[in-house]
Predict the 3D structure of the following.
Amino acid sequence: MWITLKTALRTIPFIGKLRFLKNGYHGQAADMVDEQTKGRVGADHPSVGQSFSADRETSQIMPFVERPVTVMYPYERLEDLEPWLFVPGNYNGRIGIIWETCTACKACVRACPNDCLHMTSEVRVNILDTAEEDDKWHGYGGEIEAGGYAAKIKDDFDEIAEGFDLVNEHAVAPQQYDFAEIIDISGEIATVNWSDGSGVEEVDLAELKPAEQDIVSGRIDLGRCMFCGLCMEACPFESFFMTNEYDGMSGFTREQLWMDADRTRVLPTVHQERVDMELAKRAQKEIDKKARKAAKAAKVEV
């Protein structure tokens, strides 16, 4: 009851500034914008150079006159007005899926109590094909074949991952590959038809990675989702994550609450440690499979 009373008293002008009503957040003056946010919102943003309390509104002319204030979302955003605050790490925001490790086992679909998860077909690079040539696990993925798909790493591959802010971008994650359909393979040259509509081109096979059009979990009805995280707990490959993104999860119609797979996709670098663990596990499985096959062939010859 006392906590409720304190909360109510903080909303009253003058009384809300009393010392006994303050804690580590309420009524504490702080600079409105840090250096990183200043570079993002621009030097002419109204908050630059101001030092006010996050939960009170006042002016430089009469700082002793104030009133409670809230962030007028979605026209104002928390990260712009109160950059010293952050979304807790254990916050269950919108669902994020790493396509590279998803196997379409449907464990997430079966675990969802509200039936809001749906499978969809997407072109992606399998986790086994992401290993570079100098990597220990290189060579255990697929092969590039005519009639199939291939991916070419973009020149700014690393910059794309570093420059995308999952929490604040509120947009589709950028693609780090250019995908194409393999028309023909002649020696070390592949004739490809780029999926972005740029046309047909001959490309060196060394520049391409195998890709596949596979079923992944990704289309989500946020109008039914209750952010319980059961899909994340059910995923045996740790492809599911509850991100810290709180924005972009509202709309004026139920159709606007559907998130397609490209919107729920998470770049592997967000959870690189888990992706590397899954790569090692699957590569080791391929090694064991080849060893059993070789042992079986040797037994037959004897």
About this structure: The first strand starts at residue 29 and ends at 31. The chain has two domains: 2-81, 95-287. The chain is about 25% helix and 20% strand. Residues 2-81 form one domain.
